[in-house]
Predict the structure.
Amino acid sequence: MDHRVAAVSLRNITKSFGTILANDKINLDIYRGEILALLGENGSGKTTLMNMLSGIYYPDEGEILIDGKSVVISSPKDAFAYGIGMIHQHFKLVDVLTAAENIVLGLKEPGRLNLSAVAEKIRQICRTYGFEIDPNQKVYDMSVSQKQTVEIVKVLYRGADILILDEPTAVLTPQETEKLFAVLRNMRRSGKAIVIITHKMHEVEALSDRVAVLNHGAYVGELATEKTNAQEMTNMMVGHQVSLNIERPEPVNPKPRIEVENLSVRSIDGILKLDGVSFTANSGEILGIAGISGSGQKELLEAIAGLQPVEKGSIRYIEDDGSAEELVGKDPLEIEAMGVSLAFVPEDRLGMGLVGDMDLTDNMMLRSFRSGSSIFTNRKEPQALAEQVVEQLEVNTPGLSTPVRRLSGGNVQKVLVGREIASAPKVLLTAYAVRGLDINSSYTIYRLINEQKKAGIAVLYVGEDLDVLLELCDRIVVLCAGRVSGILDGRTATKNQIGLLMTQTGGEDEHA
Amino acid sequence: MFDFVSFIPRAVVQSIPLLYGATGETLTEKSGNLNMGIPGIMYVGGICGVIGAFLYEQAAGESLNGFLAIAIPMLCCLLGSLLMGLLYCFLTVTLRANQNVTGLAMTTFGVGFGNFFGGSLIKLTDSEVPSIALSATSSYFSASLPFADRLGWFGEIFLSYGFLAYLAIVIALLTAYVIRHTRVGLHLRAVGENPATADAAGINIGRYKYMATCLGAMIAGLGGLYYVMDYACGVWSNDAFGDRGWLAIALVIFTGWRPNVGILASILFGGLYILYLFIPTGTNLSIKELYKMLPYLVTLVVLVLSSLRNKREKQPPQSLGLAYFREDR
């Protein structure tokens, strides 16, 4: 369609892992001065394809051309040499080193290591593109967005002019995302080729020039961003018609279920993580919790589940008949035994919720192994439950005896959410239930959560995608540095409003 | 009045094996390898030096060449400890065996190796006592500067040691400099902290782990050599080296993985080790046994305190003790 020479051309790239075909004869062109969005569901092979460009994997078949010349990229070093830099979804930074040290890591510059010269060069890059970082700051002191900036500067420092970003906005606030986009647009203007992998349609629309779509390892096609819309892209990605509207049924007979009053929690290091938090969660209602990651979301859910010692304040569980029971001071087992079932989907889905080396059945048993009176555990029920979860949620697994660690991220999450919902809770606590999930799996999870809401359960939904929070939740509590900076009505609130509340504690509480 | 002029030199000679061990272990741990085999490696270093010296003394008879008398035991010692380091790396890096188990097995092996060959040599010499004396070789190792005696307390405290003692301090300073200020050191730290990141940055993980661990083993081995040839005046007797290797590992934590701090810290530990000799206890010898506990008590206290420190720089390398496998998720 045009006569420009592509910065990178992939021709018939094929890659398989064992019996799974991750990429099947993919053809793709990447041009300078253009932002290409790579779309696809989880496991559709986007990251695999880009990893072959950055030298992490090596293609089984096919050819990579850079500026029209055929090249072999067999290691990350080769990729640097061709000016390809990838910013991975999980940052590859060493915590105890400074930004500058991380940036020069692995570089073989001539002469002795001169960190002040490195710092000067970093400042210059920052000025050119509008970044803000301190070269001498330690990485463990940085926020997620600062870490990401370091990653981007790292590839620019190496002279990359072909940048690949793997879900860069997954961890950013709307304001940080805007900043990142501005920087990316600057780079496009200076003639760099940029590929961005994302699940978020509105970002594709806001940023990219072209969209390429993968589905189950195969290349579906490409579109000019101006001439398409979210619905068309989603259909291409999933392969069939999908409804993009998250339904929000009216709350059925909402009654206060959990009352949190003036709750303060201090971490082991003595840092105040929650500071005088108060709100009420109603039955039959989804209460969204928004905030920059690390604003106390984890501590809040853990305090309610009895996993965090509470400094002061109260958490009351209110029965249907109006009688209240105090949850603070009870241990998680007591809370469960009282008939208060809290289901918890931790932020780190494998860390706390599932045991990676155990199979599906055994992971189901983690919830039920205490029941029964004999000294032997009952394996039949967990197995039936595992079968049920696999079937209902379309978990893609070789079998029930597969260790959970071997499943892909989305499937792990389905197992976790499925198990928590199966315990028939009165209150469902979820944190980042769709983190890293593709659009189809995410919608399955939203549907499940909505079903719980209709069944009269009080749902606390900690999320990071504000668009989803606004579409799904009835009310939204915004946390900022451990304080409630606002409680908004999900039907009337705007994204900007929430974004501002996320970064500042000011303002009156707007009770909906 | 406490006799510092005789106390400090004795503390220093006690400290040198600890310093070698601690420097070697620090270098090793910076690469993410927790080598619990250090005590065994120090034994092997010591006995290999003894074997080299023994064979050379037998071959040369009365006319020892000063250079060879030092070079042969040193080379034997370095070779022996290098082989131990290679064995450890092969098991833990290439085959990804458990580092703790491998290290402990190597300590057991090293001590047994030392005692076996020590015992054999003692048998060969038909000695009356269960030890073997290599005083001729030792005189070269423990030779101090000729004018040191004439400088009074200054010479006593600073100049009365054999060359290996100064070498230990030089190596410790050098190691600290390399780790902190050079590209190689930066890469090494990255390997120990986060090998996946280092790998993605194009650093050869296996090579850094092998290099650091083998160099570390050789440095630690010199500690064993110093102990026999200088401190013990060339006398090898089985099990005499004792538990200094474990103290060296404790020192690594005590110093917060900084070999330059290790110089003073090892002298402190060396001093605690012999303090019982300088505290008058009269005829009640059992009290002395209690004083001998001091270095171990301090080790315990230090381990408790260091676990309370929460400054990130003073924590162990993050992937310490973990094998790295690129395709592991």
Residues 201 and 274 of chain B are 48 Å apart (CA to CA). Chain B touches chain A through 22 residues (CB under 8 Å). The longest helix of chain B spans residues 66-94. The mean pLDDT of chain B is 89.
